[in-house]
Amino acid sequence: MTVKYTEDHEWVSVEGDTAIVGITSYAAEQLGDVVFVELPEEGRNSNKGDELAVVESVKAASDVYAPVSGIVKEANSELEGAPETVNQDPEGKGWFVKMLITDPTQLDAMMDADAYKAFCADL
Amino acid sequence: MSMNSQGRPSTPVATGSQHDTETVSGSKGLYQFEPLIFETDRWGKTGVDLPKAKGTKSRLGGVERAGKAELPGLSEPETVRHYVRLSQRNYAIDLGLFPLGSCTMKHNPRLNEKMARLPGFADIHPMQPQASVQGALELIDELATWLKTLTGMPAVAMSPKAGAHGELCGMLAIRQALISRGEADTRKRVLVPASAHGTNPATAAQCGFIVDEISADKRGRVDMEDLRAKLEKTDDVAGIMLTNPNTCGLFETDIKDIADLIHEAGGYFYCDGANFNAIVGRVRPGDLGIDAMHINLHKTFSTPHGGGGPGSGPTVLSEALAPFAPVPFILKDEDGFRLVEEAEEEAKESFGRMASFHGQMGMFVRALSYMLSHGADGLKQVAEDAVLNANYIQAKLKTVMTPAFDGFCMHEALFSDKFTAEGIETIDIAKALIDEGYHPMTMYFPLVVHGAMLIEPTETESKAELDRFCGALESVARRAAQGDDTLKGAPYLAPMKRLDETQAARKPVLKWVPPAPEQLAAE
User: Fold this and answer.
1) Does some domain include residue B515?
2) CB 3.0-4.6 Å disulfide test: which of B26, B61, B145, B283 passes with B33?
3) At what angle do helices B361-397 and B134-151 cross, to 10 degrees?
4) Contacts of B425 in chain A (CB under 8 A)
């Protein structure tokens, strides 16, 4: 299992042809208390960079972009009733979407954990 | 005890026992405790005593209400007191400085109100014969002439009801122009800079366009490299929606290049004119290559808003978009003024109608009154003073707080939260300002600045008032820089203390539920 990160603060955990997508601890911390999450429907085909979900906190509403192209297999419906999960466990139980990856080569250009850590330290 | 420059303590004075702040009644001084109107309700009580209607029969075809309406039962004095007490908790521009960035909360001159109340304007009806309202039509026409002159644009649609409605008007005109070019189905992409107003992408999406965000550069302005990259593919671009001055309170210095680039790509240039008060009389948007721009009469031209509204958002249009303007509009011929109401003949290319009638007449009277009482030179000074006041605040606070960008600002001063100690956030500063007697500034917006605090003083505040405000904000900012934890509990002196905004958003209680019957029986 590899975990990769984007400059828009999404993480992708890849196993086989499936990617689990969420927002990073850094993003959750910056957003503050998450109050609402809007998730995509199953089967939606998203290109890399498309708006995948919306996360709303007491401070701001932000788009979550598809870090890779793929088809939505499952959305974490638990977040709808318990958006606080995103703050409590952003890189675990607070995942947003499971996707079927259509172009795995897109992962190559993404940051690994160390590179992402350095990226955040620079912000 | 440390004092601020006004000789007041710069930290809250410790309150002794609980009795200093709490009372038996829940009231504080002459600020009376006020329950919800439903909690004041007594069954069977009413402010009016009407005889039971006899011999009536329903004509609602069976859809009439079956149960009781459950309106609260109050006498007239109880009702009056309830709403007057609530109004006392309100904060308004008539009470003090209202530094809400991006909202231009300026004084509403009373002369405007007097003019709007003249019976010839106040008592007319939109369905009156046009021959009987020639004066009102002339007023709309004269206001339109002022707006066209100030913006350097050939046409203006007067009917949009507020800012976002004006945006919709401009974008519908752009869409109609694309339809007439036969390109409506291919040109779907609208570029929106990160420094634009939040309503801009919403409007583009509402009109069926795809929003493509352009990033902001380190100067808080449109990233020209990103713009050029987005315009590499030109045949799908409908236009750009840009706010100028932008939400960072900065003039988009590359605006003429932006206009050229978008026009070369075959698109149109929409400018959000909500911040026109910063440039009115100084810059004509028509000279910058803009195709459409709404003007908030309720901001730049001092008509009331923020609960006192309604708004009004006339939209100026370039020669390229003018044929597509919405109906109705006013024409003058030998018989006087007349309204063109249908999208035919002289309006055959119009995209249609946006409102039932002709616009916000009461706001038109107020705006024209403001223009005539200031004159062209006075309006120029409005822009100059608005920019001067914002820069005064930025200069006075820049050593204590962190300005978001280098250099002068336009009509609003923007700070980031970089100066605050670990654990103290923008919201703590905003809440502490309430204790100091001020409505907080705009916070966490624009998103491109971390922990943003956006302050717009407007031109109507005196130097003395700006000094008082800066004194209060400076003392709060110093406490934030020192990590004063008491800020986390502010406001302490407001009728309601710190509210749980997270819980209110996650689990909103939107409906009052009556207490259980056993509880009522116990009363």
Assistant:
1) no
2) B26
3) 30
4) 32
Q: What is the pLDDT of residues B237-294, one digit of tens each?
A: 999 999 999 999 999 999 999 999 999 999 999 999 999 999 999 999 999 999 999 9
CB of B123 less than 8 A from some CB of A:
no
CB A36 within 8 A of CB A102: no
Please indicate, yes or no, whether residues B253 and B385 belong to a single structural domain of this protein: no
CATH of the domain at A30: 2.40.50.100
Quote the Cα angle for B164-B330-B243, to 5°: 25
- The model's pTM is 0.89
**What are the chain A neighbours of B505 within 8 Å (beta carbons)?**
33, 35-36, 56, 58
Q: Per the structure, how many domains does chain B have?
A: 2
Residue A24 tokens read as: 């990073």
Same domain? For B264 and B396 the reply is: no
State whether residue A66 is helix, strand or coil: coil
Integer Rg of chain A from CA? 13
Alpha-carbon span B140 to B248, nearest angstrom: 33
Domain end residue (candidates: B329, B344, B371)? B371
- Using a CB–CB cut-off of 8 Å, the residues of A that contact B are 32-33, 35-36, 56, 58-60, 62, 83-84
For residue B17, what pLDDT band results from cuts at 50, 70 and 90?
Answer: very low
> What is this model's ipTM?
0.84
Question: B487: domain range?
Answer: 378-505
A20: closest CA of chain B, how far (Å): 25
In this structure, chain A runs to a length of 123
Nearest Cβ partner for A33 among B443, B445, B502 = B502
- How far is Cα B216 from Cα B459, in angstroms, rounded to an integer? 28
Give ∠ CA A106-A112-A114 in degrees, rounded to 5.
160
Handedness of CA B282, B286, B289, B293 (dihedral sign): positive
Taking each continuous run of H as one helix and of E as one strand, the counts in chain A are 4, 9
What is the DSSP code (8-state) at residue B12? P
Asked if the peptide bond before residue B491 counts as cis, ω within 30 degrees of 0, the response is yes
CA distances from residue A29 to A25, A33, A84, B75 in whole angstroms, order as listed: 6, 8, 12, 50
